[in-house]
Amino acid sequence: MSYGIAVLPGDGIGPEVVAEALRVLRRVEELSGEEVAFDLESFDVGAEAWRRTGEAISDGAYGACAAADAILLGAAGLPDARHPDGREAGADVIFRLRFGLDLYAGIRPVRLYPGVPTPLRDTAGGIDYVIVRENVEGVYAGRHGGSRVEGEVAADTSIVTRAGTLRIAEAAFALAESRARAGHGRAPLVTCVDKSNVLASYAFFREVVTEVAARHPDVAFEAVYVDAAALYLVQRPATFDVVVTENMFGDILSDLGAGTVGGLGLAGSGDVGDAHGLFQAAHGSAPDIAGQGIANPLATVLSTAMMLDWLGRRHDDQAAHRASAWIDAAVATALGDGSALTGDLGGSAGTSSAGDAVLRALDTVAAAA
Ligand code: NAI
Ligand code: MG
Fold first, then answer.
1. Which of 71, 82, 283 to mutate to test the pocket of ligand 1 (most atoms within 8 A of CB)?
2. Which of these CATH numbers, 3.30.2310.20, 3.50.50.60, 3.40.718.10, 3.40.50.2000, describes 1-103+271-369?
3. Cβ count within 10 A of residue 126
4. pLDDT tens column, 315-329
5. What pTM, to 2 d.p., does this model score?
């Protein structure tokens, strides 16, 4: 099957890491005998585009994203490209796509690959869980609705709706079920993370998630306060499977999780809704290392593997599933033998040599399949 992919390289290291991800996509296309193929079209978005044109994402680029089968993003934003009110211009890209295409589920795997340094002492039980972040409600829903009174008072409103919570909870339980089906080896478990002991909106969130849990008796369920969750994700990460949580908590905990498994350079993510999916590394444009050829491309490569898995599910396409598994296995191999370890992981590979290492491993993985 052939897929139309809207490619948004963006700012800073975005174009550098996307270039490696595209080499990987082209290689799996070849290795699959074009059973899975890609029609790639790139669009100029982000802070640099905003400086040139006054728009971080044009209507044309947005329309192409809406029409594509999936979207692959590098990173958008530069700290000194700001609107007069102080908000970053590059952030318009992700917010327009997230809200416009209703990408309500932020899927953020936290997985420790062999060979990757972790700051945790005891990882005998492995680390392999997914944070499912509600992406369009919560504290961030009020991005344009916060208020300031003179120089004295500021307030934001957190939005938690029944419909929004039902669908993110269903997504979390469906993920736990599909991980179990895929032979993940652990009893399926959903952990609801909230602050229901203090705030009404979080108590409501927990109530609705608990209601969904009752419809999934095959999946174990627990609820944990967010402060304790931050502790447990460090102390006993092996006990988590799928974590479902409100927007801001998901944002914060997914960086914490990434910190336990090698950092942002390995943190892939998907922003998905019922009709659209956008895949990108969890990191930003890293202007401090842009243009040096040292950025870790693997978070973006792993995001393309997530994209293929999502396309495979949507289109019931085994070739796409296979390609996704190849990429994942190739990344694991290239990390395990050290050939893809970039500076952030304590190695000496550069961006393109890490990409080369994944391509070599892909050939081996596909030949063995
Ligand atoms: P950042 O994620 O770009 O960088 C944080 C730190 O991690 C930096 O020290 C950077 O060098 C390092 N880092 C990040 N990705 C790396 C990689 N692939 N390989 C090696 N090291 C890596 O976050 P920061 O500095 O807060 O933001 C920079 C810009 O990116 C800002 O304009 C921000 O708004 C934007 N941003 C965009 C995001 C997106 O497109 N979804 C997400 C987060 C930030
Ligand atoms: Mg974040």
1. 283
2. 3.40.718.10
3. 13
4. 999 999 999 999 999
5. 0.96
